[in-house]
Design brief:
This is Putative xanthine dehydrogenase accessory factor. This protein is an alpha/beta fold. Helix content is 33%, strand content 22%. α1 packs antiparallel against α3 and α5 packs across α9.
Length: 347
C-alpha cells in the first residue's frame, strides 16, 4: 500500500531524529497526474518515497521540497498545468495544489497513529490546519492564481491531527481560495476478501495487492494459502465456506471476490456476502452459471435490485482468458469502483 509505505519511510527518518518533507496533493482542478490524497516524502539524502504523479510536476515538487527541507519550512502552492501562463510547461489543462509539510521527531507519534489506521483499515481523517497559510496569503498584495503569488510559506509545520471517528471529507479546490483546513479520509475501503485462491484467485490477489488493496486470501485448502502462492497479502485464512461469519466478518466497507473451486461453494459464499452488504461483491461465472446463481438468489429472497448489484460475471469485458488476464479485468473493475464511488476524484 503506497501511502503506508510513505508513512513508514517517514517514521524511520523521524525516529532517527531526522527531518523530512511530506508533499500532499491537497487539491486539483481539471486534469492532473494524481488526485487528492497522493503523498510523497522527501528526505535529506535526496531520496523519496511515494509519488505525486511523476513527470515535470514531480520534478518541481522534489526541488521545492528539498529547498523547504533545508530551510525548515512548510508551503502551500498552486501550480497551473495549461495555457500560456502555465507554471510547469505541462499541457494537461488543469491545476494542482500541493501542501509541503516540514516534519520532525515531534510528529512521530501522530504518524505512528496514521500508520496504525492504514495497517488495521480503520476509518481516520488526516487534518491539516490551513490557517497559517491563510494568514500568510492575506499579507500579500496579489490574489493567488499561479506563479510566485500562489506560494504561501511558513516556518515549521502547521497543526496536524488525526480524527478517527471519520467526518465529511473536504478537498482544497486548486482554483479557489484557501479553505480553513484540508481533511482527507485515509482509509475509505476496508478489507478485500478473495474466496478461492486457485489460479485466478491467486493471480487476482497479487494484482490487487500491488494496487494497494488489503487482500485477505481465503480458501478451504491449506495448500493454496502459502506465502509463495499468495505473497504479500494482508492475511491468509483457512475457512469453511458454509460459515464465514467468525473468521471473515464482512462489513459495509469491505470488498469481496468469489472464485472458489466449485459452483456450490461459490453460491454459499455469495449468499453470505450478499446478506453482509459489502461495498463490492463479484463472482466468477459463465452465462449459464450467471443464470443459475441469479435464480438461486431469487429463491433465497433477494430482490432484483440486490441481485443487480452483484458483479456476475466479474471483471471488465476484455476477452480475458488466462488467469493473469482475468485478474487484470477484475482489478480494473474494482479500481474503477474505488476511484468513482469509494474515494471519488475531485475535478
Amino acid at each position: 500500500m503506497e501511502k503506508l509505505d510513505v508513512v513508514n519511510a517517514a517514521l524511520v527518518a523521524l525516529r532517527a531524529g531526522k527531518m523530512c518533507e511530506l508533499v500532499v496533493v491537497a487539491g486539483t482542478a481539471g486534469s492532473s497526474p494524481r488526485g487528492v490524497g497522493a503523498w510523497m516524502a522527501v528526505f535529506a539524502d535526496g531520496s523519496q518515497a511515494g509519488t505525486i504523479g511523476g513527470g515535470k510536476i514531480e520534478l518541481f515538487a522534489l526541488d521545492e521540497a528539498r529547498e523547504l527541507l533545508a530551510a525548515g519550512q512548510s508551503r502551500l502552492v498552486r501550480y497551473t498545468m495549461g495555457s500560456e501562463n502555465s507554471d510547469t510547461g505541462m499541457i494537461c489543462g488543469g491545476a494542482i495544489c500541493l501542501c509541503y509539510l516540514h516534519l520532525d521527531a515531534t510528529q512521530a507519534p501522530l504518524f505512528q497513529e496514521i500508520a496504525d489506521v492504514l495497517t488495521y483499515r480503520r476509518i481516520g481523517d488526516f487534518v491539516i490546519d490551513f490557517e497559517p497559510f491563510v494568514i500568510q496569503a492575506l499579507e500579500g498584495d496579489v490574489v493567488e492564481y499561479h506563479g510566485e503569488a500562489s506560494r504561501h510559506t511558513i516556518a515549521g509545520c502547521p497543526e496536524l491531527s488525526l480524527v478517527e471517528e471519520g467526518s465529511k471529507v473536504t478537498y482544497t479546490n486548486a482554483a479557489s481560495e484557501i479553505p480553513a483546513a484540508h481533511i482527507e479520509t485515509l482509509c475509505p475501503e476496508g478489507l478485500t476478501y478473495i474466496f478461492g485462491c486457485g489460479h485466478v484467485g491467486a493471480a487476482t490477489a497479487r494484482v490487487l495487492t500491488a494496487a494497494g488493496f488489503a487482500v485477505v486470501a481465503c480458501d478451504d485448502r491449506p495448500g493454496t494459502l502459502t506465502p509463495d502462492w499468495v505473497p504479500g497479502v494482508y492475511d491468509r485464512r483457512l475457512v469453511d465456506y458454509k460459515n464465514l461469519s467468525e473468521l471473515c466478518p464482512i462489513g459495509p466497507r469491505d470488498l469481496v471476490v468469489v472464485a472458489t473451486a466449485g459452483h456450490k461453494s461459490d453460491i454459499d459464499v455469495v449468499i453470505q456476502a450478499m446478506r453482509a452488504k459489502p461495498a463490492y461483491l463479484g463472482c466468477l461465472g459463465s452465462r449459464r452459471k450467471t443464470a443459475f446463481v441469479r435464480a438461486r438468489l431469487e429463491q433465497e429472497g433477494f430482490t432484483q435490485d440486490q441481485i443487480g448489484e452483484l458483479h456476475l460475471p466479474i471483471g471488465v469485458a476484455i476477452e480475458a482468458e488466462d488467469p493473469e488476464e482475468i485478474a487484470i479485468s477484475i482489478a480494473a473493475e474494482m479500481i474503477h469502483l474505488r476511484r468513482t464511488k469509494l474515494v471519488p476524484r475531485k475535478r
